[in-house]
Amino acid sequence: MSAPAAQPRFEPFRLRGANFNLLVLRLLDARPEVIVPALGDQFRRAPGFLRFAPIVIGLDDIAAAPHEVDFARLVAELRNIEIMPIGTTGGTPEMRSLAQSAGLPPLRAAGGREEDVPVQQPAPQPPPQAPAASAEPPPPPPLPEGMARPTMVVDTSVRAGQRVWAQNADLIVTGTVNAGAEVIADGNLHVYGALRGRAIAGGADNTDARVFALNFDPELVSIAGYYAVREGLTEAPIGKPVQVRLIGESMRFDKLG
Q1: Which of 76-79's residues contact partners 24+ apart within 8 Å by CB, and which partners?
Q2: Could you give the CA distance from residue 57 to residue 82 in angstroms, rounded to a whole number?
Q3: pLDDT digit string, tens, across residues 69-96
């Protein structure tokens, strides 16, 4: 009698590393009662922006002592306005430890070194004094002289709900970016159709990046973290060919042609 055939092996899951483009909410104030209403005001001017989007909480700019930050309340109130905090970046080891106890693990940039994070104990004790936080990983080296920045080209329109990200590259969209869509470029962003969704250039803190659109009517436009929503574009030539750039910390909208 022949032996029964071997059953194929079933894999219940697989783990795979990946890079994601996440926005960082850099806290300049430690009080949830100040932070959350200010965010709510922004969302009322840009309905749908960041709704249910994962964000990282940046801790480097908080002047308050770690024990003065109510991370549990901050997480709960952000989720109440449909923002999903998933972790933290920066801050002292003590502050990261307190954030982790509220469900916000420390994250690191892709390619960066793991930070020295105290291990959480079942019964948390007052954290001991720890050395200063490790330095942020250095920015990527500039392109060699004479080498052009790589470019991603999208030959179709970008539909509502879609997100396109040109990592470490410029982005060219030959069609329309529809309302509810999002296009992101670490370099310059070109839209040769109508720009009606969200446009983000200079995603890697590149303040020299620019946004070009033949029909400019976005829900939101951002360069290197500075942004303006549709209701705030009173000086922009809506519906016209436009170039957007930063002058200092102000956004400038110039008609093309």
Answers
A1: 77/32, 77/36, 78/36, 78/39
A2: 15
A3: 888 998 898 888 888 888 888 888 888 8
User: What does the block give as tokens for 198?
Assistant: 């969200």
Whether residue 111 is predicted with pLDDT greater than 60 in this model: the reply is: no
3-state secondary structure of 100: helix
Strand partners, 166: 185
Structure tokens at 5: 């055939």
Q: Helix or strand or coil: residue 130?
A: coil
How far, in Å, CA of 147 to CA of 191, rounded? 23
Judge whether residue 47 has pLDDT over 60: no
Q: Are 106 and 100 in contact (CB under 8 A)?
A: yes
H or E element in which residue 192 lies: strand 189-195
Are the C-beta atoms of residues 185 and 176 closer than 8 Å to each other? no
Please tell me the predicted confidence (pLDDT) of residue 6: 60
Tokens standing for 117? 């994070």
Amino acid identity, position 124: P
The answer, yes or no, to whether residue 141 has pLDDT greater than 70, is: no
Which pLDDT belongs to residue 175? 94
User: What is each CA distance from 101 to 49, 123, 126, in whole angstroms?
Assistant: 28, 11, 12
CA dist., res. 227 & res. 213, Å (int): 16
Distance CA(131)–CA(115), nearest Å, equals 11
d(CA 56, CA 46): 20
Contacts with 34 (C-beta within 8 Å, 6 or more apart), sequence order: none
Compute the distance between CA of residue 104 and CA of residue 54 in angstroms, rounded to an integer. Answer: 12
Buried b vs exposed e over 5-30: b needs ≥16 C-beta within 10 Å? eeeeeeeeeeeeeeeeeebbbebeeb
